[in-house]
Amino acid sequence: MTNELDCRGLNCPAPVLQVRDVLEKEAPAAITVIVDNEAARQNVSRFLEHQNYLVSSEMLGDEFRVVGTKGEGDEFPEMAFQSSAAKKRRGEGKKIMVLVTSAHMGHGDDGLGDMLMFNFLKTLKEMGPDLWRVAFVNSGVSFTAEGSEAVPILLQLADDGVQISACGACLAYFHLEEDHIPGAHNVPLLTNEERVEVGTIYKQVGPTLARRRGLELTCSRFYGMVERIISLSAGRPIVVYCWRGGLRSHSVAMLVETCGTPASQLSGGYKSFRNHVTDCFDKCHFVSPLIVMHGMTGTGKTEFINGLDPAQWATIDLEGIACHRGSAFGALGLEQDFTQKRFETLLWNAFRVLPADRPIVLEGESQRIGKYSLPGRLYQKMAESCKVWCHASLDTRIKRLTAEYARPEYRGEMLEALERIRKKLGGPRYDELKTCLDGWDVEGIARGLIEGYYDKMYYKHRPWTPDLELELEDYRQAEAGLETFLGA
To answer: What integer best gives the mean pLDDT of the chain?
Structure first.
């Protein structure tokens, strides 16, 4: 019996795992595996050899055909090592804990390291019931943050009974805590590990024993918690919330009140707040009209918006909130080190505090600013609003980009950004910009990017007509022109 397995488009270890599954279920006398990368060819070949197959491979175009054949009379003696033998070596009844200490695997290229670590996490399910816990520390906690591609993998492991834990101090250090209501202070009733323990008891035994265990863990902390909460409130009203507005926040609010200080519990907890934020951006019913500033890179849109007279204008700095300038070099000196939910909360709060008696001016952006997406209908709302096309001369744009880029500490990041757009630039233009960067000719870099990249890539197709065209050579004159247009 011969099997043919098509593993094209799969990165290791997926081809090896598929081959292993076929061998365990069918024990074929011969198997042909089609892969499309050298790493998969080598790994599949080694695995088949380990399983006592005679292996040959050939390259056909961009693909490899790996053929494994069993010898006569060989009864596949080593397949047991995949299951019972491995368990015996580990020891009967022992469990495995996996500690993930980094967002990358190995040293060298971070992109390759990310892919290797992600693929490793995908294979954890192969440990089956032997896997007890996966713990994330240091930069490894990024895999547990909202928006990580690894979250569905971890949720599946959790559904299978594997305990997933992330170091709270590490999440805080890397600003990866999902989100919180603006102005809130974290006074935890339980540690992450204790929440896992109590939650497991609740699920496996029942709520009564879980509550008793929770009381046992926390009663010695009550005095310190109440003192800290009262101190943080500084005489202001106290509102206590947890994830769903359940027993944790109810207990703490009742405890504070018992000690003589009024406290309220937020109905529905953070989840209800999150629903409110989502609803606000789904509706986009802003109290004032939006004025959206568009224009080519370097015209000075962000600087113009942030310099508007606050007595006359309400402004939103989308790029400032997102910590990204929205271009190929937009991450220079900035870090997008919080979650999508946090970005949405910060943006919601920025809109919330705006005065209601003046127009809201913000910069036109794509659907994404770096790694963050504009929430709900905001992008569509901006497209439906008043649009202003901003102009500035080439010399002015070069001058403004040069002032923005000319920091020696950006040099390494500029090289990385240049490498990312190398193919789009083409060889000659890339070489020209690389020479400018090596000689720290920032003005030459700015000119080359404007002429050879930004103006060719951005606003290439503009399927709309601006309501106003505005010169940004002089910001004060531009502000007066905008005011005249809106007052007309």
So the answer is: 87
Task: Please provide the distance, in angstroms rounded to a whole number, between the alpha carbons at the two ends of the chain.
Answer: 83
In angstroms, the CA 452 to CA 393 distance is 16
User: Sign of the CA dihedral 400, 406, 412, 415?
Assistant: positive
Residue with tokens 């997933």: 164
- Asked whether 301 and 295 are in contact (CB, 8 A), the reply is yes
Architecture of domain 192-271 in this structure: 3-Layer(aba) Sandwich (3.40)
Domain range list for the chain:
2-82, 96-173, 192-271, 284-487
- State the pLDDT confidence band at 280, using cuts at 50, 70 and 90: very high
Alpha-carbon radius of gyration of the chain: 29
Amino acid at 48: L
Instruction: Provide the pLDDT confidence category of residue 52 given band limits of 50, 70 and 90.
Output: confident
59: its two tokens? 């390259």
Burial 137-161 (b: 16+ CB within 10 A, else e): bbbbbbbbbebbebeebbeebeeee
Q: Which CATH number fits domain 2-82: 3.30.110.40, 3.40.720.10, 1.10.10.10, 3.30.470.20?
A: 3.30.110.40
User: Residues 178, 342: contact at Cβ < 8 Å?
Assistant: yes
Tokens of 65: 């055909």
Q: 217: phi > 0 → left, psi -120 to 50 → alpha, else beta; which? A: alpha
pTM above 0.70, yes or no: no
Q: Would you tell me how many other CB atoms lie within 10 Å of the CB of residue 462?
A: 11
Architecture of domain 284-487: 3-Layer(aba) Sandwich (3.40)
Find the Cα–Cα–Cα–Cα dihedral 341, 342, 344, 349, rounded to 10°.
140
Residues 201, 205, 210, 216, Cα dihedral to 10°: -80
Packing angle of the helix pair 192-204, 207-218 (nearest 10 deg): 160
pLDDT in tens, 420-443: 999 999 999 999 999 999 999 999
